[in-house]
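Data availability excerpt. The first of two example chains:
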Amino acid sequence: MHSTAITTPQFLVGNTPLVELKGLTSNPNIRIFGKLEYYNLTGSVKSRAASNILETARQERLIQRGSVILDASSGNTGIAYAALAAVHGYQLKLCLPSNANAERKAMLKAYGAECIFTSPLEGSDGAIREAQRLAKENPDWFYCDQYSNEANWKAHYQGTGPEIWQQTGGAVTHFFSSLGTSGTFVGTSKYLQEISANNVKCFAVQPDSPFHGLEGMKHMASALVPAIYEPDLAFEHLEAPTEESIELMNHVARTQGLLIGPSCAAALFAALEYAEKVESGTFVVIFPDSGERYLSDGHLWLEQDSWSGV
């Protein structure tokens, strides 16, 4: 067996593929690429942040085998923590909205995470508040705090950004990322703007309403704003509607052969809308996770392709 075939789970993070999407815009001078983050360990972009948060804490001797780690998550980061905790022998306590879907709950159970369910009416903000309360009551636990931990965005500054630059041969002109913790947007944007001397335009995408159905995304004006969020990095702030994003998610599955999640489709919707305003460009859109994680959410999957464009 060749040594290149041998690895360990924590190294199955990063180096995700970039694929070109065809036929979504009529402008032949615009190329649109999706960065398929569901090729990471546990199937989402959140493995990058979770891995860097835990590895940084280990290097700083804040945690060791047997340590209790705590955080809040809407699902994907929690799943990444759970897998990495299994590898390194940490005890994970995760605050999670009780309306997290069946796939997330099943994966967390499989990895052995202890879930502390919070009110579905408060969403991820309620989970954050509960994690903050528990952290104060248990100072011996390591509170990962993905929303404030700089190791979150640094994972993307060190990984996602350089990968995009290399994979496009430095040709990327526009970068689009949906907002949750904002780590993906912040870290990747910092790198791309730095290496391109601010020639890459970076776009932060969020739901167009506080009452939305775009799993994992934050409507910043009505939510607890992550401490790591840097809105000034955005060339422009864009919004995506829930219904049209879900229609696009279905359209991508039926025309591109890619099963993507709602937050992927939201960022892609914003990119396609912006494509109507420019003559040319190489667009890169982050696809945080796979649609496979939403198959139990039957309302997301339409019987017919109803996408009519932007």
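And the second chain:
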Amino acid sequence: MERKLIFFDLEGPLSPQDNAYEVMRTHLGAEGAKIFERISKYDDIISLEGREGYEPGDTLALLVPFLLAHGITAEDIRKVSEKAGLVSGSRFLCDKLRERGWKIYIISTSYEQHALNIGEKLGIPAENVVCTKLNLDERRKEMSEKVFALVHKYEREILEMPLTEEGSLKRLCERLDALFFEELPAVGFEVFETKVVGGERKASALREIAEREGVALEDVVAVGDSITDFKMLDAVRRSGGLAVVFNGNEYAVPYASVGLASTDIRFLLILCDAFAAGGKKEALDVASAWEERGDAFRREPESIPERFIPNELLAFIKTPFFFHNIERADERKKEEIVSIHKDFRVRVRKSAGLLG
């Protein structure tokens, strides 16, 4: 493999923080968290119904009028991002991949104020980060008193709607449909002027970069964890590349080639080395070996064949990590894999791990 490309989603695989959620929670407290959770649930519902022109992750477009209505600025988003941590092992992994000649890209729904910050922490140049552009100063010019009044009116309504009752979810969708697709456009605020890098836009960005780099999709690795990533993962998997889900949810796991569940992403190096050595087949074979013999490997690390672990990882062998060959898993096995991944997802991401 002459040129090695890897594409990471950001929130989940590289940083545990959902920055937009944290911005709302930091500035508006518990009500801000509830607003975000309801908009995120709405995003999940209309994404899965396949609404034309709507992509998973457009939550971050829907959130913009609420940010503006509460006077939240780009600087506020940056300040919250400064407090964001990194997933354990992510800096180690990026350093080792660069040493091995991999070119690393981030493709993220995150606002640029967060994505560029995390990329910089990991030594990934800004030109290798594809993310959601957000100019709140420009959008603020579109905020008439009518827009402010609408946002606050609907905000009060949705805060009263529980997320656990089918009738309430239906009502939530009806009211947010009215706000985003009818009432805000009618008073001059175009919600979807903010182009979020999610869903098919992630897959398209990956294809464009691979083409520019002169690398076929069968020779790339993509790493994701959520509903915004499934189209990117699926595009790579179907093209013969390696689609990896890291601590994924039920929206992402079925579209991956292989799963890694752990509190530490450095173990992805095992798959990347295997993929570089022998392509997707070798990576899946190595994942299957760990799936079947992982307990024995951990008991006797000295007995692990060199093919199955790079020397740099032997010191970390006691850290729990689990590989799954998802391509050979039946539906029952996939449900088991989702359960394992969700457990690690919450361990790493806390409350953000419960979002779609």
